[in-house]
Amino acid sequence: MKNGSAAAVSTSNVVPNDLNAFWMPFTANRQFKKTPRMFVAARDMHYTTSDGRQVLDGTAGLWCCNAGHARPKIVEAIARQAAELDYAPAFQMGHPKAFELANRLVDITPDGLDHVLFTNSGSESVETALKLALAFHKIKGEGSRTRLIGRERAYHGVNFGGISVGGIVTNRKMFGTLLAGVDHMPHTHNLAKNAFSKGPPEYGTELADELERIVTLHDASTIAAVIVEPVAGSTGVLIPPPGYLKRLREITKKHGILLIFDEVITGYGRLGTPFGADYFDVVPDIMVTAKGLTNGVVPMGAVMVSAEIHDAFMNGPEHVIEFFHGYTYSGNPIASAAGLATLETYKEEGLLTRGAELAPKFQEALHSLKGLPHVIDIRNIGLVGAIELEPIAGQPTKRAFSAFLKAFEQGLLIRTTGDIIALSPPLIISESQIDEIVTKLAGILKTLE
Ligand code: PLP
């Protein structure tokens, strides 16, 4: 495992004096621009800041750099591909690497998911999946199936379909009526019953039956698909109880509703299995991925679908486009090369299952924080975990954000959402680096207001 020295910093990476023009995503822009936090290089488990400090990556970037940073195989593959075939038209033309990557993905996805559509992000993968579900039913002569069912506290990216089936009020409330005909199931997170669970919590399997209630309300003949994250990541690592996803699978199958797993975070080894579907032993009809597909290095997403869905589209005259959807960069050569090199790196280093080996150590380390000030819950699965803090009255998010700033000062990158600290380190992390994360966090938690 490489956890080595500081990355080389190029002199072209000088921080500009004027930071005004870039309107940053999901960032408190005014606060940031007063006291900017800049990375200028990265290698393996560490970032280098613009003032030359090393920061341990406790979040795999944004849940995506599963093999760590600047991995030689990926860097070389991108450079080689850029020199050889930089771009090829994505519509009505092909290039070998996109087909090869689709084949390699089918090799590692659960049996039954045999076809792959490429996108450029998790948000686009979600839209692709939702559109596929609607079109599938229409093609099958069930055009009345137009409803989409999501969950409260779900994050499915930022496009209109994704925020409609998503369950985060701040991401929804400014954008009008969103998609029509969407309903939401409850999430399974329950602090009163499940706090400090190790792995999947006990309570809540029966919440899957809320789907039956929604079916009774709307009738199955109006419902196209249910979309869930196997583990909701962005809203604070909400882990389903055993049997919950299996129950959703049974109910969706019974009613002819497609089940979509959004595996943008849970995919590519995060739970200690290649996908969340493997961890929970449930095969959805459509699986949405991105992030770890290219180790976060080049934007790319992939949507895996069942043969049943794919074959339903392959019926008309052969010269006619089967699915009117796609992007200029779908299966882009450089992204495909990055994806192939990433999957090779995962395979060579056993990273898709390394999370399972490290999970007991990660669990023990994380739960050692129980009892520290403000800690009201700790939860974990594979190599992802969360520490929930009691919010300061009248000032939600402030306490966790303060922990984030202190961690950055002390050389540790964590992610916060609301008053929850989320950890999802690269899967190459060493046991001593897990200890380092927890030791730093313990110190920080003791100093929080
Ligand atoms: N779906 C899930 C479950 C995610 O966690 C994310 C991003 O964190 C997305 C979709 C959106 O991905 P992107 O930011 O690449 O559009």
UniProtKB/TrEMBL annotation:
Key words, A-Z: Aminotransferase, Pyridoxal phosphate, Pyruvate, Transferase
Cofactor(s) demanded: pyridoxal 5'-phosphate
Keyword check for Transferase: yes
GO biological process: biotin biosynthetic process
GO molecular function, one term: beta-alanine:pyruvate transaminase activity
InterPro entries with a match to the protein in the record: Aminotrans_3, Aminotrans_3_PPA_site, PyrdxlP-dep_Trfase, PyrdxlP-dep_Trfase_major, PyrdxlP-dep_Trfase_small
Its EC number(s): 2.6.1.18
Secretion signal span: none
Similarity comment: family membership: Belongs to the class-III pyridoxal-phosphate-dependent aminotransferase family.
Name the record gives this protein: Omega amino acid--pyruvate aminotransferase
Organism encoding this protein: Devosia riboflavina
